[in-house]
Design goal:
The protein is mostly beta strands. Helix content is 8%, strand content 41%. It is rod-shaped, with a radius of gyration of 53 Å.
Length: 452
């Protein structure tokens, strides 16, 4: 009996154990959820608009709840949502809530930084003119930058990290200004060129009319301003007329003998510079002197020239003669040909009798070509000794046919005499006869009174 009883008890326990094991195997295991994802900024462009691609890496999830703070699309339930775009600068959160039917939930958040849109540009404000030295205040017009690098070619300073620096250029010419901006992720550059004009210089010279070539008082100076990049001028010459002037190129008269100091002050918006020069005016000797003057033979009238004017201080060619300068011609030289066997000086109003065209408004000059035929009054050495117009006072120029007679090249040097229609006396010293075919000429020195 006991044996069978024990067998029944053991069988009952076996049935209970098998039932427990069966029930335990019938219960499903709970699956955990791990929310995970990664992002990629398209083209690594963090300047708005910023486009972000999302890759879901979650495990154990069946449903997905995305939220995109500040994006063009604010939410999604797709496993792999479409790229989202941020149009405004800022820091935004991308949040993923992943879950499954077992009720398991997990979350993950990634922050995205969208920078302001970047654009590089600049301008400058110039202090005064573009004449060296030039100071520029740079004006940054860029967008989205947090860092700046300025590069100034030839400037002081040569570089700067300030947003709106100042720079000074002193070297004239073109200078490149380059601006590089960055937001820590992206970098952009642009450059512009500025031209700097040279610093102001001050200089001058002067010319005088032929009548003042001897610098005998009074002398009129035509001041020639050679200064550069100046805005205004101040001339001062003590004793001159005028003594001061603001004209760029004034004419001044120095009335008496002496040493004059000419002072020119040049001014612009950057600086003032002063230069002075001296000119010596000699006592008035009432004499004009001209050396090594070329006078052509008849065939060289339009190339070398045959007419002379002491007032103009030059030889006048046939094709240059007009109604204005005709009255200023003192005499003409007529040379028949290159052999110089027939030569004579001719009064301006008689040139048409020697093969020249008539001179408009011509005046009459008395001429003595051959002093040896009427009595020599001024020899070659006497010509050299003439230092004053008064030295001509003792010479009596009487016009006669004999005195007007032509001469050859047999006597060198030869001195001829003349007297203009306004009474001024003068002399020509022929120093050389130069044979050069149709371009033959004589070389002469001329002295003539300024006033009768």
């Amino acid at each position: 009996m006991n044996f069978f009883k024990n067998i029944k008890i053991a069988s009952l326990f076996l049935i209970i154990a098998i039932t427990f094991i069966f029930n335990a195997c019938a219960v499903e295991e709970s699956i955990p959820v791990k929310a995970d994802f990664s992002i990629k900024v398209v083209n690594d462009d963090y300047s708005v608009p910023v486009k972000v691609e999302i890759t879901n890496k979650s495990t154990g999830a069946e449903t997905y709840d995305w939220s995109f703070d500040g994006a063009s699309v604010t939410s999604s339930t797709e496993k792999n949502p479409q790229p989202v775009t941020y149009a405004s600068a800022g820091i935004y959160k991308i949040k993923l809530k992943a879950s499954n039917k077992d009720g398991n939930v997990d979350e993950k958040i990634i922050e995205v930084k969208a920078d302001a849109a970047m654009n590089v540009d600049f301008d400058w404000q110039m202090q005064g003119s573009d004449i060296s030295p030039v100071t520029l205040h740079m004006i940054d017009k860029s967008l989205g930058a947090t860092q700046y690098l300025w590069e100034f070619e030839g400037g002081n300073p040569t570089t700067s990290n300030a947003q709106n620096p100042d720079v000074v250029f002193t070297t004239p010419g073109d200078h490149i200004i380059k601006l590089t901006i960055s937001n820590g992720l992206e970098t952009y550059s642009t450059q512009k060129t500025i031209n700097i004009k040279p610093a102001m210089t001050v200089d001058f010279n002067w010319t005088v009319d032929p009548i003042d070539n001897d610098y005998q008082a009074p002398v009129t100076l035509h001041l020639n301003n050679l200064s550069t990049n100046a805005f205004s001028y101040e001339w001062s010459i003590v004793g001159a007329n005028p003594a001061v002037s603001s004209v760029t190129n004034p004419d001044i008269t120095l009335p008496a003998a002496g040493t004059y100091t000419i002072v020119l002050k040049a001014i612009n918006d950057k600086e003032t510079k002063t230069l002075q020069k001296q000119v010596v005016v000699l006592p008035d000797a009432n004499l004009l002197s001209f050396s090594d003057v070329k006078l052509g033979i008849n065939s060289a009238g339009s190339t070398i020239g045959c007419f002379f004017s002491s007032e103009l201080g030059t030889v006048v060619k046939q094709n240059e003669v007009n109604a204005t300068n005709g009255s200023k011609i003192d005499f003409a030289f007529f040379g028949l040909n290159s052999s110089f066997i027939y030569n004579q000086f001719v009064s301006p109003d008689e040139v048409q009798n020697s093969g020249f065209l008539a001179i408009p408004n011509a005046t009459h000059s008395k001429i003595i070509n051959s002093q040896e035929l009427v009595g020599i009054q001024l020899s070659s050495s006497g010509f050299d000794a003439v230092n004053s117009g008064d030295d001509f006072n003792s010479i009596n120029i009487i016009e006669t046919n004999a005195g007007k007679s032509p001469f050859s090249n047999s006597v060198v040097p030869r001195v001829t005499l003349f007297q203009t229609s306004d009474g001024r006396k003068g002399a020509v010293k022929i120093k050389e006869f130069v044979a050069n075919g149709s371009s033959s000429y004589i070389i002469v020195d001329i002295k003539i009174q300024k006033q009768p």
